[in-house]
Amino acid sequence: MDAPLTVSSSPHIHDEESIRSIMTDVCIALLFPLALGTYYFEMKALYLTLVSVLSCVVFEFLYRKALKKTNTIRDMSAVVTGMLLAFTLPVSTPYWVVVVGAFFAIVVVKQLYGGLGKNFMNPALAARAFLVVSFPAYTGIFTEPTFHEDGFSFFSTPDAISAATPLASLKQGVLPENYDLQNLLFGEIPGCIGEVSALILIIGGLWLLARRVITPRVPVSYLGTVALLTFVFSPAGVDSLQFMLYSILSGGLMLGAIFMATDYTTCPVTKRGQILYGIGCGLLTVFIRYFGKMPESVCFSILIMNTLVWMLDKAGRARRFGVRPFAFLFKKGG
Amino acid sequence: MFSFFHGGVHPDDSKANTRHKQVEYLPPPEFLILPLSMHIGAPCEPCVTLGDDVLLGQVIANSGAPVAAPIHSPVSGRVTAIEPRSHPNGSRVMSIVIQNDGLDKLHPEIAPYGSVESLTPEELLGVVRDAGIVGLGGAAFPAHVKVRSGLGKVTRVIINGCECEPYITSDHRLLLESPEEVLGGLKILMKIFGINKGTIAIEANKRDAIENIRRTLPRRGEGIEVRSLAVRYPQGAEKQLIQAVADREVPPGALPAAVGVAVFNVDTAAAIHRAVTTGMPLLRRIVTVSGSAVSNAKNLSVRIGTPMETVFAATGGFRETPGKVLAGGPMMGIAQFDLTAPVVKSTNALLAFSQREVNASREQTCIRCGKCVQVCPMKLEPTYLYMYERKNRTDMLEKYHLSDCIECGSCAYICPGRLHLVHSVRTGKQKLNAARAAAKEGK
To answer: Which of A180, A210, A240, B145 has fewest C-beta within 10 Å?
Structure first.
């Protein structure tokens, strides 16, 4: 035997899925809402997303280079963060604000804690929270979508008409007057680039489910909790079912439940932990929408639950193999 | 049919190369190497000395220890060395080397024990012990010890024909070519235990084997059923198979007898049948030779003690220089570095892979995707075990039930960050044992 044989620990075969393939799948899923966002909010939406992605990748590259760490931009995770960050911003946000957000997401939230897999908060959401409290003048204006009756033009710019979102009406305890449920499904409402159409986000989520990137546990327990609470505790004089449907279709809830709360690093790994986490997100979202002063219900509820992941993983540990449920009750002595 | 165990993965089964190939007989080589430890438990002591002439089937090493199995000469010839030699487990083990005289002169004591009906359960158990039979699925636990520890507790015998490891087809071929031996072995085991409930469990990707053994079943069943199980790795792991077939979970640290079940590999059952009906101890086994670097993938009937290089040569040698050689399957098999090591009792496959296929993946990072938790059949949290092993937190390893790990490799197979999780578990078990020993000393 001339060439040496490789000796390594078992297993000797491996599933083809890698971090890169997972992140690429998420990017593909995010292309659906990006296409629709570009249709409704003109090319500025696409440019804003590109600036966000590019800044995230560049900040990640520069940080790792400066600290002489391995280059990780090939794992595609910075691209995902960039897309998600842009999706949570209104199309009228200035480019420089997006760059500041990208810096906060990649350098402060992700890399300072050790990079991919080590951060304890979702980078895109934390950056959005940072921008919302730092630059409310830019992040609080929502543009009406364009409907392109005369055909799509690559050169038109959206009119920066600020409009009240359906969520703002819901906070008043009434159903939105100008928008019906169909508008919410197809995204014909003012809002952020990537969160206007519930339907297209669900399609992206189905792609992730089909590719086994995510499981239904977090999105279903999150949306289910919000649906249940808004149905049971709908305001007086408003149809419960209508209020419930408007509640789960408006704001950033779909984007949050499908793409943000399911972020691997900042959600529990145990099955029960994931369900508890989804329920917790749902409870906080409804509480903030009902009793909070700010409209940031989804963003802050996920960020708060992010900080509880360590505890939820412990609480959600499975029953030990071969030990019957509630075995501690049957233990003799101590 | 309903069958269920936690977690699991679906690696490509890669069995097409050898699935339809009849088992070929490999003549014994000139020199055979018989390690004194081919089973779990105490190593044997040689009962022959250098220069002794030995006969086919003669006991050449034995042990008085409770957990051990005797070793027999697979050929007739002369003992030319008793010295440490390479073992497939990667260490060097004291071994008896026999020069084959090519005559296969049978030891005079080798004769059929008589019909199964004429023997008492105790006599049958004695045959199992004297024939040196161990668990042939890979664990190599002495079969007579497993039987004796389950007497009076076991109410059901499961014959394991899952063969869930990719590439391996030795059990599949046995079920196709000698179903009556498997069935005979099961009946003997049922007689020893004094029970009338036996199950032969086979994964659904071996439909021909399932139909074949169903045809062999006695007309009125006699308490024996054949179960077809949905394909999933690690179905053939003892605890997972019991969960799938009997819907019982074996408690931590306990033997399957604790839930009234005993599991034997199909090859073990066949070896028991052969030992009783022909008197022949365990001298040979079926080995699947496959993998991308092998010229002609085959199923071979090999004498125990045959060096691996001889087995590979018998399949026409290597198509290209192998980058990795495994004893066993790709999920749990052991990577080899010295091909002079012999086929031992538990070697069910020899696989050689080309340099291109060597999975030399660099460890990346844990992204906390939780896939390892989802696939773990023992309901552990491999990502946390990995983290605590890295930090030498033996207290947490204990708390997270590290010792429950069966090292099936499902977690490392699925991990998108390519973490070496099984390796970490093995290291962790050593650290945990050291910590326990230190704690005992301190008291």
So the answer is: A210
Interface residue B260 vs chain A (CB under 8 A):
no
**In this predicted model, what pLDDT tens digit does every residue of B138-153 receive, in sequence order?**
889 999 999 999 999 9
For domain B111-278, give the fold.
Answer: Rossmann fold (3.40.50)
User: Which chain A residue lies closest to B377 (C-alpha atoms)?
Assistant: A321
A70, closest residue in chain B (CA to CA): B364
Which residues in B lie closer than 8 A to residue A317 (C-beta atoms)? 381
Q: Can you give the pLDDT at residue B1?
A: 43
Which of A115, A66, A121 has the alpha carbon at shortest distance from B364? A115
Q: What is the pLDDT of residues A239-268, one digit of tens each?
A: 999 999 999 998 899 999 999 999 999 999
- The ipTM of this complex is 0.90
The residue type of B135 is: G
State how far the Cα of A285 lies from the Cα of A297, in Å rounded to an integer: 5
Contact B332 A269 (CB under 8 A): no
The domain B28-107+283-357 having CATH identifier 1.20.1080.10: the answer here is: no
Residue B340 near chain A (CB below 8 Å): no
Q: Which of A12, A271, A319 sits opposite B333 (nearest CB)?
A: A12
- Domain ranges for chain B, please list them: 28-107+283-357, 111-278, 371-442
**Which 3 state secondary structure label does DSSP give A143?**
strand
